[in-house]
Amino acid sequence: MIAAATLGAGCAVLVGAFMILLRACLGPTAFDRVLAVNAMGTKTVIFVAIWGFISDRPEFLDIALMYAVINFVSTIAILRLIQHKRLA
Fold first, then answer.
1. Which of 13, 83, 12 is nearest to 41 (CA)?
2. Are 87 and 77 in contact, with CB atoms under 8 Å apart?
3. Burial 8-36 (b: 16+ CB within 10 A, else e)
4. How far apart are CA 70 and CA 55, in angstroms?
5. Could you tell me how far CA 69 lies from the centroid of its own chain?
6. pTM > 0.85: yes or no
7. Phi-psi region of 27 (alpha: psi -120 to 50; beta: other; left: phi over 0)
């Protein structure tokens, strides 16, 4: 029962990722594209956490949390680079 629910959640995450991918390809500005890539990273974190739950491997949650931190820092750096033309 729980595995079927998590499988359904995984499918919902994949459908959402496909919609975000369309937004990244069709986005009119660079900010739209960067935020779509950030949302795709968030979906990846959720997918990795669900995959760890399904496969009964709790260490996947640590991997998902590290990926979330890297995703956040890289998004801030890219947006700062786009806005100010420099990182410092």
1. 13
2. yes
3. eebeebeebbeebeeebeeeeeeeebbbb
4. 24
5. 11
6. no
7. beta
Count Cβ atoms within 10 A of the Cβ of residue 4 and give its class: 0-12 exposed, 13-18 middle, 19 or more buried.
exposed
Contacts of 64 (CB under 8 A, 6+ apart): 45, 46, 48, 49, 52
Reading the block at residue 54, the tokens are: 């399904």
Q: How confident is the model at residue 65 (pLDDT cuts 50, 70, 90)?
A: very high
3-state secondary structure of 28: coil
pLDDT number for residue 13: 78
DSSP state of 29: S
For residues 50 and 9, the answer to whether their CB atoms sit within 8 Å is: yes
What are the two backbone dihedrals, phi and then psi, of residue 57, each rounded to the nearest 5 degrees? Answer: -125, 95
Q: How far is CA 65 from the centre of its chain?
A: 11
- One-letter amino acid for residue 33 of the chain: R
